[in-house]
Amino acid sequence: MELRHRFNRNLDRIEVSMIRQFDQAISDIPGILKLTLGEPDFTTPDHVKEAAKAAIDANKSHYTGMAGLLELRQAAAEFVAEKYNLSYNPMNEILVTIGATEALSASLVAILEPGDTVLLPAPAYPGYEPIVNMVGADIVEIDTTANDFVLTPEMLERAIIEQGDKLKAVILNYPANPTGVTYSRKQIEAFAEVLKKYPIFVLSDEVYAELTYTGEPHVSIAEYLPEQTILIQGLSKSHAMTGWRIGLIMSCAEIVAQVIKSHQYLVTAASTAMQYGALEALRNGKDDALPMRQKYVKRRDYLIEKMTELGFTIIKPDGAFYIFAKIPEGYNQDSFSFLQEFARKKAVAFIPGAAFGQYGEGYIRISYAASMETIEQAMVRLKEFMMNDGTD
Fold this sequence. Notes:
Blueprint lengths: L17 H9 L6 E2 L11 H12 L12 H15 L9 E4 L1 H13 L5 E6 L5 H7 L3 E6 L9 H11 L3 E7 L11 H11 L5 E5 L23 E6 L12 E4 L2 H15 L4 H13 L4 H21 L3 E2 L7 E5 L8 H12 L1 E2 L1 E2 L10 E5 L4 H17 L4
Parallel strand pairs: 1-11, 3-4, 3-5, 5-6, 6-7
Antiparallel strand pairs: 2-8, 7-8, 9-10, 10-13, 12-13
């Protein structure tokens, strides 16, 4: 029986992420140091682990309901109210999801139809476009490279006008993966002034909100556009809980009533024991990210110093835990080839900028969610490579 031509044709537009492809391509190198994935090297706080264990021992093993534990949604509402000046009703304006990825999927499936377009400032995390493509919609990138990866209100409005009636949503991600760019209150207010004029959704991925290094509190676009914004949050980065797979969708009741439909049929509900761990994290670990953030800043500053000495151009990131560095002139500008050669010769892995779309080529992304010892060793090897092996 011939079935290979009967798959969803939208899948033909999708490939395995280049991040994963590259990671797999160099994983067989003995003793390789990886500064590749957004995987904190810190462990989940003990009080969170104990709460999940207690839930298991208490036989908390049944479905929680589609939206998740009410206590967790209440804790999430309190957390974002205290941290980001946001107001959500836990009864009908918050959903617990299986990580931020499922939150994105459920939201995009709920709002998009074939032929729709979605604006995305670029270079960008490569996980958005495949979800958009699977439902037959299209990503339209806004090139920010000429402005140090910073989106402006003028860029945003120009792109909105160009798309016209096809435009259904804008995706914002800040602090951003891969660039570390984030925005001040004044900048967010300016974006809101543009966006409120148009009947479009704002999907705001703010999973790195607790990892902001400007000294000013993170400002959510949802504070200004609560009726348009679908806020994506999660605990993976803030509490070193990547494997726990707990994310959050927050929006007005009208939007959540639709998104919960796609969420229900994608996953039913998040893991019950993991939700009890997340409840503890939000209720009693509101500042668990602080010691991690302090160490990330030291790692960031060290990398900037060492890589600048080697000729890399770096826009200082104000959030997340990535360095997005331009490969110096005179070296191979094909980021995949450049890093593949580096990995084979020096047993160190970074991520090619091309993994983040056409506007990422010529750059490399380094995750500093790794120990300082690993980072220091990687910089020694990078210096050796640049001095002896890396030129065209």
